[in-house]
Design goal:
2 domains; mainly alpha; 138 residues
Length: 138
């Protein structure tokens, strides 16, 4: 079989099919991983996580399941109307920097984890309006 080379962090369908072929041919996890250019632990975890009720590795189902569970972009914490957004808008209107606002939140709300936001998130909300739209309010 031709060597299959991994192209990124996530396994491709072609790699999953190569794993299935290797298992059918009784190859070791290490040899399958070497052929794919992946760590043996990656192949071992993939096979363990995507076996059917009879213990067979199912590459197409594995690929579909991986796509379904992949992290999707979520709305910024500052996109939602609420006390955190109001606090940030108030701080920006008082000419505080995002770093100052982020640090001040920890002091003013030490026990409230919902009142936490990084300065990077504030910058994103300011400069990428699609994510938070703070620029319109400030």
């Amino acid at each position: 079989m031709d060597e299959v080379v991994g192209t990124g962090r996530l396994l491709s369908l072609q790699e999953r099919l190569a794993i299935a072929d290797g298992l059918v041919n009784f190859e070791s996890m290490r040899s399958i991983a070497a052929r794919l250019g992946r760590p043996a632990s990656t192949v071992t975890r993939e096979v363990a996580a995507h076996r059917d009720e009879r213990g067979r590795y199912m590459p197409h189902r594995a690929h579909r399941d991986a796509a379904d569970t992949r992290a999707r972009p979520k709305a910024s914490k500052l996109a939602r109307v609420g006390p955190l957004r109001e606090y940030v808008v108030d701080g920006l209107s008082r000419k505080l920097s995002p770093e100052q606002i982020s640090n001040r939140l920890k002091v003013d709300h030490p026990d409230d984890e919902s009142m936490r936001v990084s300065h990077e998130t504030i910058y994103q909300a300011l400069y990428f309006q699609a994510r938070g739209g703070l620029k319109r309010e400030v």
